[in-house]
């Protein structure tokens, strides 16, 4: 600030009178003292809190730490204001595999709901909170997927499947339905509900000693995953026994102890990766006790098909495939590892908050063209050099399904469910079905929910 | 007009011509028949005159012909005439029954149309909805045409008769009536400007064009199952707002045809609301091409009339179109 531009009157007003008179006698120059900050400790203006209102009442209580997030992420699976749907049945063991059930809405049994909740299969953005009970529509795609799952389990093979499709077309719901089938049929279900939690540098990581190239473990996430596996598959894990001793674990787990005991070894983040790795080895164990089929799901595939946000010790970005947990999934998806008791590796892409993944898109489109038997398979763009060879190598044999809209019959069934729940304020006829189907972008399930549930004039 | 034409008129009444120019005394009737209206090139007014070099407007000439007003026959000079004994009437008999009224030609016209109606009024007519729509001349047009001032109400009565004559079935309408009516039709007929009907091409597509604000939409409507694609995208992808989706397919929804047609559309310009409402009109037009009977319900649903409102222009001295700057004390 230029001193010459300061008005003398302003300076005089800002400086307390006592300071002014004190410096006047002692110093030759007055400007230093005049420009020094006035001492607000005693005479300064009282700072009024912004939270305090005009009336001077107490500030409103702020929500506790994590309270808002808990509210945001809350999953509500029933609503007593909704009408119970007459004739709605619980899904049983093979219901999702029966073609005659296409177009039927089935309720998810209470125990399975708990298991699904434990593995975070429900999402806060889905409309579970509007209905009396969590129920799901059996689509033709559901039956197709579940039949493939059954075939893989029967043949002790590993089905590797990726679901792609437009926004809110029900890709995550397909994962949920596969997990429902898995829980109903005593599969071991492992679910990564949001792949971005693994690669966006929000969870702790550390290099695994003795690996070359260096792999990274994510102990906190592993612990969370083990807890989810334990909570959801407890009975099954109690039945299965270990085939190896695991000397690397902090706790001694003798051979023939249950897998539940093995998972119980992970109590703290330290060593959680080791426990998870041990569990994985046990599930991959080809000899000895017959392992049940395993379902490994991951939502948001593009997040693990890129270079992660983590940095190495040399401050270089770490490829997502160098994260050990991701590595397990990618190996299973690419076919490098297979479940001895049969199983399914299932992934869904996401259209929300998804990074650009040109390599993944190319690989999926190539697979789609190959599966459809198209004359021309999409080729690499010769002028683009951002392709990721590791990603392209992971996906060439995977099975890809593109999810689209529902048929009119399925739409009718879904709207019937809405109507019976008291949520459709319209007469349900062909005209209504046609309207919702068109407004919902040719039967895109999420758009139809918007068209019929969010536009209610209550 | 009357003042300036008084001299020849009195001359006619006196049955004489100016002594300087003519030597023959004409009968009174001849005198009246020889009177002509002509436009003076000097002052632009109309005059009555015996002169034949006047140049009345073509339309009026034609009307004269149609009105059967004839000039007096040529005088046979070979037969000597007794100027007194040869006068057929002692009182002059004007050619027009409305000679002494203020607006003689219009009166003649009315009488003539009345006569035509008396003669042909019993012919079968078309129902009003099927009669060819015609824009008639107004009393103002008539004044411009003839220079004769007619009350609007009187002219309206005349037009009523014309309209009634016009209603006669075209196959039976006599040529006299057609010719009598013809000059009273306006030269520019807005009703003749009929839009080209939308056709359905060999693929079953009807192309409708709609506009709203600054958006233009072209919609190809085909029979189908209710699929809608706009600029290559599904309806829900193109319009994020549910209201826009509804208004885009409103024409199909309002007529319960949503599951009967497919729409493939191209939209350009404007914002989302404009584009959605332009689509309403475009789809409605395509739909009417398929089912013309739907035009009335679509009009009731508001899908036929183009909303002409645009952004109002900004004016000088205003902050926006109408907003004025804030008042400032000095």
TrEMBL record, chain A:
Residues 21-67 are annotated as: Disordered. Keywords: Mitochondrion, Ribonucleoprotein, Ribosomal protein, Transit peptide. PANTHER family: MITOCHONDRIAL 28S RIBOSOMAL PROTEIN S29, SMALL RIBOSOMAL SUBUNIT PROTEIN MS29. GO terms for cellular component: mitochondrial small ribosomal subunit. GO terms for molecular function: structural constituent of ribosome. This is Small ribosomal subunit protein mS29. Belongs to the mitochondrion-specific ribosomal protein mS29 family. Pfam families: DAP3 (PF10236). It is found in: Mitochondrion. Residues 21-32 have a biased composition (Polar residues). It comes from Schizothecium vesticola. InterPro entries: Ribosomal_mS29.
Automatic annotation (TrEMBL), chain B:
One of its GO terms (cellular component) is mitochondrial small ribosomal subunit. GO terms for biological process: translation. Keywords: Ribonucleoprotein, Ribosomal protein. It holds the Pfam family Ribosomal_S9. GO terms for molecular function: RNA binding; structural constituent of ribosome. It comes from the Eukaryota. InterPro entries: Ribosomal_Su5_D2-typ_SF, Ribosomal_uS9, Ribosomal_uS9_bac/plastid, Ribosomal_uS9_CS, Ribsml_uS5_D2-typ_fold_subgr. PROSITE patterns: RIBOSOMAL_S9. Belongs to the universal ribosomal protein uS9 family. NCBIfam families: PRK00132.1. This is Small ribosomal subunit protein uS9m.
């Amino acid at each position: 600030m230029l001193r010459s531009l300061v008005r003398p009157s302003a300076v005089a007003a800002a400086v307390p009178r006592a300071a002014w008179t004190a410096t006047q006698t002692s110093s030759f120059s007055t400007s230093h003292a005049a420009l020094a900050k006035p001492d607000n400790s005693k005479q300064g203006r009282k700072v009024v809190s912004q939270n305090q209102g005009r009336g001077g009442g107490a500030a409103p209580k702020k929500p506790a730490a994590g309270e808002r997030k808990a509210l945001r992420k809350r999953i509500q699976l029933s609503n007593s204001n909704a009408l119970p749907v007459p004739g709605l049945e619980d899904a049983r063991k093979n219901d999702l595999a029966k073609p005659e059930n296409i177009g039927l809405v089935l309720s998810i049994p209470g125990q399975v709901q708990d298991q699904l909740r434990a593995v975070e299969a429900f999402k806060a953005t889905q409309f579970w909170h509007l209905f009396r009970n969590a129920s799901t529509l059996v689509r033709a795609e559901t039956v197709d997927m579940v039949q493939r799952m059954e075939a893989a389990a029967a043949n002790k093979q590993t089905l590797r499947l990726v679901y792609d499709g437009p926004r809110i077309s029900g890709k995550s719901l397909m994962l949920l339905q596969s997990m429902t089938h898995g829980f109903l049929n005593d599969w071991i279900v492992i679910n990564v509900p949001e792949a971005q939690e693994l690669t966006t540098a929000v969870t702790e990581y550390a290099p695994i000693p003795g690996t070359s190239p260096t792999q990274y473990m994510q102990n906190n996430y592993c612990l969370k995953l083990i807890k989810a596996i334990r909570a959801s598959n407890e009975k099954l894990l109690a039945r299965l026994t270990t085939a190896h001793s695991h000397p690397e674990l902090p706790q001694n787990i003798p051979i023939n102890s249950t897998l539940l005991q093995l998972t119980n070894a992970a109590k703290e983040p330290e060593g959680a990766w080791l426990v998870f790795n041990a569990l994985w080895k046990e599930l991959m164990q080809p000899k000895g006790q017959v392992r049940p089929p395993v379902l490994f799901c991951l939502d948001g595939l593009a997040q693990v098909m890129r270079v992660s946000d983590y940095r190495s010790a040399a401050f270089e970005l770490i490829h997502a495939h160098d994260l050990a947990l991701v590595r397990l999934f990618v190996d299973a998806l690419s076919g490098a590892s297979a479940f001895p008791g049969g199983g399914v590796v299932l992934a869904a892409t996401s259209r929300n908050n998804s990074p650009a993944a040109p390599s993944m898109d190319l690989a999926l489109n190539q697979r789609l063209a190959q599966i459809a038997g198209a004359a021309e398979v999409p080729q690499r763009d010769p002028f683009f050099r951002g392709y990721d060879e590791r990603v392209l190598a992971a996906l060439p044999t995977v099975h890809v399904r593109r999810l689209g809209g529902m048929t009119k019959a399925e739409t009718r069934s879904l709207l019937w469910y809405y109507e019976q729940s008291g949520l459709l304020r319209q007469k349900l006829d062909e005209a209504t079905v046609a309207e919702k189907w068109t407004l919902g972008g040719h039967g895109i399930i999420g758009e139809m929910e918007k068209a019929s549930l969010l536009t209610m004039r209550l | 007009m009357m003042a300036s034409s008084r001299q020849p008129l009195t001359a006619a009444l006196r049955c004489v011509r100016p002594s300087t120019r003519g030597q023959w005394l004409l009968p009174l009737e001849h005198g009246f028949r020889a009177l002509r209206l002509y436009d003076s090139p000097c002052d632009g007014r109309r005059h009555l005159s015996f002169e034949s070099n006047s140049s009345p407007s073509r339309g009026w000439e034609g009307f004269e012909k149609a009105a059967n007003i004839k000039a007096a026959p040529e005088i046979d000079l070979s037969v000597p005439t007794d100027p007194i004994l040869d006068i057929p009437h002692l009182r002059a008999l004007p050619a027009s029954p409305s000679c002494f009224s203020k607006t003689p030609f219009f009166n003649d016209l009315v009488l003539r149309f009345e006569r035509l109606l008396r003669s042909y009024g019993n012919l079968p007519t078309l129902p009003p909805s099927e009669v060819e729509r015609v824009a008639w001349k107004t009393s103002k047009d008539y004044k411009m045409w003839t220079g004769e001032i007619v009350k609007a109400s009187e002219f309206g009565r005349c037009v009523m008769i014309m309209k009634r004559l016009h209603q006669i079935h075209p196959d039976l309408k006599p040529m006299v009536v057609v010719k009598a009516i013809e000059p009273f039709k306006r030269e520019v007929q807005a009703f003749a400007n009929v839009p080209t009907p939308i056709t359905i091409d060999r693929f079953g597509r009807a192309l409708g064009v709609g506009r709203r604000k600054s958006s233009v939409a072209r919609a190809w409507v085909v029979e189908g199952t209710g699929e809608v694609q706009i600029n290559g995208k599904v309806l829900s992808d193109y319009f994020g707002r549910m209201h826009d989706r509804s208004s885009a397919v409103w024409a199909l929804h309002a007529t319960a045809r949503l599951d009967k047609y497919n729409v493939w559309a191209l939209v350009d310009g404007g914002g989302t609301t404009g584009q959605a409402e332009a689509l309403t009109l475009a789809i409605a037009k395509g739909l009417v091409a398929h089912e013309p009977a739907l035009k009335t319900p679509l009009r009731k649903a508001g899908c036929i009339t183009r909303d002409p409102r645009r952004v109002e222009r900004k004016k000088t001295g205003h902050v926006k179109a109408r907003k004025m700057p804030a008042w400032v004390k000095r």
